[in-house]
Amino acid sequence: MGETANISENTPKKSWFKGLKAEFKKIIWADKESLIKQTAAVVAASVVLGIVISIVDIVVKYGVEFLIG
Questions:
Q1: pLDDT digits (tens, 9 = 90+) for 37-56
Q2: Which region holds residue 31: left if phi is over 0, alpha if psi is between -120 and 50, else beta?
Q3: How far from each other are the two terminal CA atoms of the chain, in whole angstroms?
């Protein structure tokens, strides 16, 4: 039960870093054109969503003021 293998403390770290390096080699990075298009889509969606939330907020604000006053 109390037996331990004669494994150096550095071995798990080296194996982990080797695995990490192998996984990073598998990553397919987006090209510049695709990156620009996706970034523009995210920014546009964020702006549109921000506008929609602002409109809903204004409508609710005036609706509550109308009901109270």
A1: 999 999 999 999 999 999 99
A2: beta
A3: 77
